[in-house]
Amino acid sequence: MKIALIIENSQAAKSEIVHTALTTVAEPLGHEVFHYGMYTPEDKASLTYVMNGLLSGILLNSGAADFVVTGCGTGTGSMLAANAMPGVFCGLIIDPTDAFLFGQINDGNAIAMPYAKGFGWAAELNLQDVYRKLFEGERGLGYPKERAEIMRRNRGILEDLKAVTCHDMLTVLKTVDQDLLKAAIAGEKFQEYFFANATDDGIRDYIKGVVGA
Question: Rounded to two decimals, what is the model's pTM?
Answer without folding.
Answer: 0.96
